[in-house]
Amino acid sequence: MSPPIAVFLTEEGTVHALDDTCTHQDASLAAGWVEDCRVECPLHESTFSLTTGEVDQPPAKRGVRAHQVTVRDGEVLVELSTAAPKLPPGVEVA
Amino acid sequence: MSLAEEGHLLIIGAGLAGYHTARQVRAQGHAGPITILGAEAHPAYDRPALSKAFLCGTTDLCDLYLDDPSDPLDARWVRSDAVTALSTEPLGVQTASGTFYLGDAVVIATGAEARRLGGHAIRSVEDAAALRAAPLAGARVAVIGGGFLALETAATCTTRGAGSVTVIAGEDLPGLRRLGRPVARALHSLHEQHGVRFTGAARALGVTRAPGDPQADQVVTLSDGRGIPADVVISAIGASPATEWLSRSALALDPGTQAVLADDTGFTGIPGVWTAGDCALWSAQRTGLRPVGHWQETVDQAQALAAALLGGSPSPMQEPYLWSDQHHVTIQAAGMLALADEVQVLAGSIEGNDLLVSYLRGGTEIGILGMNRLREVVRWRKSRRIRPAVLAA
């Protein structure tokens, strides 16, 4: 089972896919703020790279998984990362 | 006078303010030693989850540690040693273990202590662990206080299967004075949907043993003469700055709260002595322009203090921000809510747990609050963002 995945379309027109759940606590990154190819969690100030998933600052300590995205004929194809998801404490994949 | 490149920074207090000050000072390039003194036995930990996930049992203390074990801060931590006195000449502190620590600069970040009326409190992890271990299932729980800590705790007690939860908020609706009527009504409705009861405007006077009710441990006596019998009583009635150890120092303390007074970079006016977090009252907080006791405020203060301490110019403080989780509803507020003279409902309904309200002063919007309105609140905060001035080369 995979945790929810968020797909992002940046102002520059690039498409990215990350695990949707912030690694600090249960919050949907899809409700966050996208700028400079990063998404900021809607609850706190940790931002995640849309290309690698790495995190820049607390409160989150760990990055999220980034998934490979291909756009073909206007369709977004996501190839799931084989890495283990990094979910916040107390949150499990449903 | 800023801290020299190789100067020793002594941080008093190993909580959110102490950790973030150290982190910011390192991030902003300080190379000299940093020592962080803490009274508690644990590594520095984050408190917001103590009334929520930790109290529910879904996270443990190790999940709350502020420092990252895989990328630890370059600092020396001293635990279980409370400070007892500040010395300005030489600059340093005396601790309970009899040690004197010298510093080239001292940051006072001793936080605040829960005010207690009786029963449990929720400030330290020990407080929260004691309540977590209490038999809440089926119990009659009384929560004294009407702020977010009290409401979060009440919500968690329902999750834990409490038989009844009664909140003694001391006002007609929880949050009425601070957040206005629409939000207070929505909070009241949210909690009532989950079976929480409120006692209205009557204030809690004290907690006594219950002679007439052998099943109940305690009775909370109210100002209107009622008594609320309870198996578990929780006080969440605010916190007082932990500055008793400074009462004979040269520092200026606020006459009301005993918080350490400082300018808006955390400088106390005594050379080398700075302060941030819940033990401090910066000028803008004293005049009511900035909130007191909020997580984000402390993190932002740490950044400003670190910049000033190292001789740089602090980034501007952003709009105040706070959040809460109650019954799976995320409540977020940003801006200068305390200054508002008008509240307007923008969207959502009282009963729908999806309210979005605007706070105005003289007709101008100065704040926002959303319940499960993450996108709207983040957009508002970003639209009000103050960017650092670009300095001419």
Can you describe this structure?
The complex is a heterodimer of chains A (94) and B (393). With 94 residues, chain A is an all-beta fold. Chain A has a single domain (5-79), classed as 3-layer Sandwich (Rieske Iron-sulfur Protein). Chain A is built from no helices and 7 strands. In chain A, the strands form 2 sheets. Chain A has a 4-stranded antiparallel sheet with strand order 1-2-6-7, with no helix packed on it. Chain B has 3 domains: 9-114 and 239-309, 3-Layer(bba) Sandwich (FAD/NAD(P)-binding domain), CATH 3.50.50; 120-235, FAD/NAD(P)-binding domain, CATH 3.50.50.60; 328-383, 2-Layer Sandwich (Enolase-like, domain 1), CATH 3.30.390. In chain B, 21% of the residues lie in helices and 28% in strands. Chain B contains 9 helices and 25 strands. The relative contact order of chain B is 0.13. The mean pLDDT of chain B is 95. The chains are: A mainly beta (94), B alpha/beta (393). The interface between A and B is medium-sized, with 16 and 24 residues.
Summed over residues and divided by their number, the pLDDT of chain A gives a mean of 95
Query: What is the CATH architecture assignment of chain A?
Result: 3-layer Sandwich
CATH topology of the largest domain in chain B: FAD/NAD(P)-binding domain
Low-pLDDT stretches of chain B are: none
CATH superfamily of the largest domain in chain B: FAD/NAD(P)-binding domain
The portion of residues forming beta strands of chain A comes to 25-35%
**Overall number of strands of chain B:** 25
| CATH fold type of chain A | Rieske Iron-sulfur Protein
Relevant terms:
heterodimer; A: 94 residues; mainly beta; four-stranded antiparallel β-sheet; three-stranded antiparallel β-sheet; 7 strands; B: 393 residues; alpha/beta; FAD/NAD(P)-binding domain; Enolase-like, domain 1; 3 domains; five-stranded parallel β-sheet; 25 strands; globular
